[in-house]
Amino acid sequence: MGDYMVCAKDLRIIWARDRRYWRWVKDTDDSDVAELLNVCWLKVSGKIEKPNLSPGTQYEVVLVAKMKTRAYGWDAPVNFKFSRPGGMDDWTINLENEFKDSKDQWKDIKLGEFTASENPGDIEFWLYKFGGKWKSGLVIKGVAVRPKS
After folding, report:
1. Is-contact 61 71, C-beta < 8 A?
2. Cα 43 from Cα 6, distance rounded (Å)
3. Within the chain, where are the H helices?
4. C-alpha to C-alpha distance for 125 and 142, rounded to whole angstroms
5. Strands, E, within 77-122: which ranges?
6. Angle at the Cα of 42 (from 36 to 46), degrees rounded to 5?
7. DSSP secondary-structure letter at 8?
8. For residue 66, what is the DSSP state?
């Protein structure tokens, strides 16, 4: 009943195989991370099938990422949508503010929280921004679902 991590390689990232837009690099722990080079159409999504969560426990969903020093295009909020048994939430998050004092450092960006219900079901999430400014400099390690501390 612990943590679930959807690594970057297991996320669905639009344009991820196109080297003009994304670059895959090895992190210091040898994991593959996705570095955003340049997109104006951002869509990252993932799914955890029927996770074994403890009913009644508060969980949080976090994006494990970092923002490069020379990142740009993040002054407008991006959208986050999160579906779990018993509901769906969506809101916006300003990633530029989240990384303001911690460029080039891995950070857990809290995307949302929920209480696990008795009936397990899939958890799905989407981080997206269609159109608008070109964006660069976000490096994604993955998305974690874990008990809230």
Report:
1. no
2. 15
3. 95-98
4. 12
5. 78-84, 87-93, 107-115
6. 95
7. G
8. E
Q: Which amino acid is at 52?
A: N
| The residue to which tokens 């074994």 are assigned | 52
pTM exceeds 0.90: yes
Q: What is the pLDDT of residues 2-44, one digit of tens each?
A: 689 999 999 999 999 999 999 999 998 889 999 999 999 999 9
Question: In this structure, how many other beta carbons lie within 10 angstroms of the beta carbon of residue 48?
Answer: 19
pLDDT in tens, 115-131: 888 877 899 999 999 98
CA distance 102 to 139: 13
**What CATH class is the domain 4-147?**
mainly beta
Phi, psi of 2 (to 5 degrees): -100, -135
Q: Residue 128 corresponds to which tokens in the numbers above?
A: 């997206």
Asked if residues 22 and 115 have their Cβ atoms less than 8 Å apart, the reply is no
The answer to whether residues 4 and 51 touch, using CB atoms and an 8 Å cutoff, is yes
42 closest CA partner among 108, 144, 107, 136? 136
**Cβ-Cβ contacts under 8 Å for 97 (sequence gap 6 or more):** none
Round to whole Å and give the CA distance between 46 and 11. 5
